[in-house]
């Protein structure tokens, strides 16, 4: 495709007009769908359209998202869906939470991005709030935009502080897809195609197996391989909402101290209340040395992520070079204004308690359905195919084809769920924490219908 600046000028103008239009007609909606499909296929990723067919086709017109509030969103033709995916943990506060939107709007009119030289107050406010809400002695934070950047920062910080280069991570772990985070991932599908990744030693051990972690620490100590940190998700998300045994995190804490190794909690998905506590590690009162947060930290409105640590560890971020770690676009005023509101709403509404209560309501009902349709479910997972805590829930099927049909059946009935990125073996139920009990009941009814239809 050759360069065509005139076309780019008119095309961007056309979309500026559409974006500023308060609503669209049905005819315009259909045009937008066709245009979006063409744009995805020709300029973004045809594979996305093919892979997501089960959940994008709803009747004659592909579903193209447009608006939403709470746990409900609408496509461009006005069809309504209950969101049980929550943007993979992005939308704990629901779609377009009014307090977060109001904060961002107000800040937008003042100053959206920092000068990079003066002190931008909101960055300091958010850093203080993070110190107030994170466990233990965590006191300093760095802000960026994506979860993977937060994990990258955590890895770099652990390396700089310990002056060691090894990491122990978990099988099936998901930490993001830039090179450092990707190296820590526990899945060949994503690690293998790009070839050689992080240069230091990385050991993958089964998640939840404290003995395996201890054995690996012991082997490394005996052969003289220096380990900087153990990095894990408190409850594995992308692996399918896998909850470790209760002694796992306390033992990780104990053994990392014993071996002089840092403990990093990747709270990108579990953080901000998702699992029924404000942070996943709070289930076991564990205080990590470094914590990575993202997704719902931006209230589902702005991209914001953070890695946070103690004053002692943060010294290497401040001295001798305070610019050892920077980013121009991350942690700007709009992002911070969103996160400040997101923290306020999360605390005010005690969203983690809502997640715990709604999870306690939903999980037994999902288990009862799994018992009735046990021929479909994979009992290797918690004996009945249902795993998770709070509103981070996995339904594990024996056959991905069944998972695919259940996801498609739910979508046809107006409920969005999704597999774990490339597999429908596991379907995640991860709604906004503000989902109502009535909406949960509707989801359960539709799930039963979808299972019966399979
Ligand atoms: C635990 C965990 N860490 C890191 C990431 C990466 O976050 P992002 O997609 O924002 O880069 C994810 C994303 O799903 C995640 O679940």
Structure description:
Strand 16 (418-420) and strand 17 (423-429) form a beta hairpin. The longest helix is centred in the N-terminal third of the chain and has 26 residues, at 26-51. This protein folds into two domains: 45-96 and 350-453, Aspartate Aminotransferase, domain 1 (Alpha-Beta Complex), CATH 3.90.1150.10; 98-348, Aspartate Aminotransferase, domain 2. It has 16 helices and 17 strands. The protein starts with a helix and ends with a helix. The radius of gyration is 22 Å and the shape is globular. With 454 residues, the protein is of the alpha/beta class. Helix 7 packs across helix 12 and helix 10 (210-223) packs parallel to helix 11 (248-259). The protein has a seven-stranded mixed β-sheet with strand order 6-12-11-10-9-7-8, sandwiched between helices. The chain has a four-stranded mixed β-sheet with strand order 3-4-5-15. A four-stranded antiparallel β-sheet has the order 13-14-17-16. 45% of the residues lie in helices and 17% in strands. The model has no long low-confidence stretch (mean pLDDT 95). The structure holds pyridoxal-5'-phosphate.
């Amino acid at each position: 495709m050759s360069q065509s600046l005139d076309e780019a000028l008119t095309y961007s103008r056309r979309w500026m007009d559409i974006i500023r239009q308060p609503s669209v007609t049905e005819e315009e909606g259909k045009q937008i769908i066709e245009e979006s499909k063409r744009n995805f296929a020709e300029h973004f990723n045809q594979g996305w359209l093919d892979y997501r067919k089960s959940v994008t086709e709803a009747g004659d017109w592909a579903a193209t998202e447009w608006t939403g509030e709470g746990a409900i969103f609408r496509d461009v033709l006005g069809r309504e869906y209950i969101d049980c995916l929550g943007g993979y943990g992005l939308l704990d506060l629901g779609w377009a939470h009014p307090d977060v939107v109001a904060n961002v709007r107000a800040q937008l009119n003042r100053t959206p991005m920092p000068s990079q030289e003066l002190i931008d107050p909101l960055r300091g406010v958010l850093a203080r709030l993070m110190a107030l809400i994170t466990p233990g002695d965590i006191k300093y934070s760095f802000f960026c935009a994506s979860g993977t950047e937060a994990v990258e920062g955590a890895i770099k910080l652990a390396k700089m502080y310990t002056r060691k280069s090894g990491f122990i991570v978990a099988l099936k772990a998901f930490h993001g897809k830039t090179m450092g985070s990707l190296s820590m991932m526990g899945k060949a599908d994503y690690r293998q195609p790009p070839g050689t990744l992080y240069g230091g030693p990385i050991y993958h051990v089964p998640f939840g197996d404290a003995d395996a972690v201890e054995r690996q620490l012991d082997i490394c100590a005996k052969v003289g391989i220096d380990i900087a940190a153990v990095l894990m998700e408190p409850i594995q998300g992308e692996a399918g909402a896998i909850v470790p045994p209760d002694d796992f995190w306390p033992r990780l804490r104990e053994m990392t101290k014993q071996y002089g190794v840092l403990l990093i909690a990747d709270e990108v998905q579990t953080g901000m209340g998702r699992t029924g506590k404000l942070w996943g590690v709070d289930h076991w009162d564990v205080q990590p040395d470094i914590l990575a947060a993202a997704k719902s930290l931006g209230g589902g409105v702005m991209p914001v992520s953070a890695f946070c640590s103690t004053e002692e560890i943060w010294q290497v971020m401040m001295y001798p070079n305070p610019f050892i770690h920077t980013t121009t676009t991350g942690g700007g005023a709009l992002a911070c204004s969103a996160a400040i509101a997101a923290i306020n709403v999360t605390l005010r509404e005690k969203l983690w308690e809502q997640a715990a209560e709604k999870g306690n309501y939903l999980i037994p009902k999902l288990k009862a359905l799994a018992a009735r349709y046990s021929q479909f479910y994979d009992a290797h997972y918690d004996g009945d195919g249902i795993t998770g805590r709070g509103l981070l829930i996995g339904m594990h099927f024996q056959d991905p084809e069944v998972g695919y049909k259940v996801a498609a059946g739910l979508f046809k009935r107006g409920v969005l769920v999704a597999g774990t990125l490339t597999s429908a073996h596991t379907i995640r139920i991860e709604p906004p924490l503000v989902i109502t009990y009535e909406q949960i009941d509707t989801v359960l009814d539709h799930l039963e219908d979808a299972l019966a239809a399979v």
